[in-house]
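User: Here's a protein and a ligand (adenosine-5'-diphosphate). What would the complex look like?
Assistant: Let me lay out the input and then the predicted complex.
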Amino acid sequence: MSAEEILVRCAGVGRTYGSGAAATVALQDANCELAAGARVALVGPSGSGKSTLLHLMAGLDTPTEGTVTWPAMGARAALRPGPVAVVFQGPSLMAPLSVQENVTLPLVLEGVDAGEADDRARAMLERLDLLELADKLPEEISGGQAQRASVARALCGAPRLILADEPTGQLDHANGGHVIESLLEGARSAGAALVVSTHDPEISARLPERWEMAEGRLLAEPVGALS
Ligand code: ADP
Ligand code: MG
């Protein structure tokens, strides 16, 4: 597979938090590739290393062993805001900003003109059926709505890779379904690859590929499929 098609490559990646007697080995010898168009469910029990691996693939964290590279996207500093979008498990909207301002923020940080950023944010909010919440503050909306606003924020920058860390973990069944639909639809229309970590079998069943983790290890050495 050519470099243009590989979004992320992990080679012998490990991550140990802390040192000495307090060290926790969260990830060991992870080898994986994620190709353009991949749709992956990252599954495993709590504490198996899913968030650690996602954060490394997002360039939010650096490995203590091995290397993470982004052959099709360039250097770590160029990933966010930009081609990599992250949806976090817990509340991640900025409390003093309205829903629309939250969705606009990554675009503004990327240098998109404010008027255009607003137009794009409103179009994305409309697509996710959130337009009527545009002027509300995060504390004025439900958890499910906030998580979908986080998805809108992630999709608004036209990412090439979306990494969602248990995005439905704190939601009920109906809201969880709505969030995963929004992610799949957004990835499809952006032409982005999507990785969703989850321990919900109904959510993982929505994605065609499964990467399984246990005790800090990937159980296979996956190479993401081309769409
Ligand atoms: P998962 O997302 O699958 O629940 P994590 O990647 O969050 O797993 O955690 C893997 C292991 O690393 C767990 O033992 C967890 O307690 C530990 N861990 C995660 N983050 C930190 C941190 N910042 N400091 C110390 N230990 C951590
Ligand atoms: Mg986690």
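Summary: The mean pLDDT is 92.
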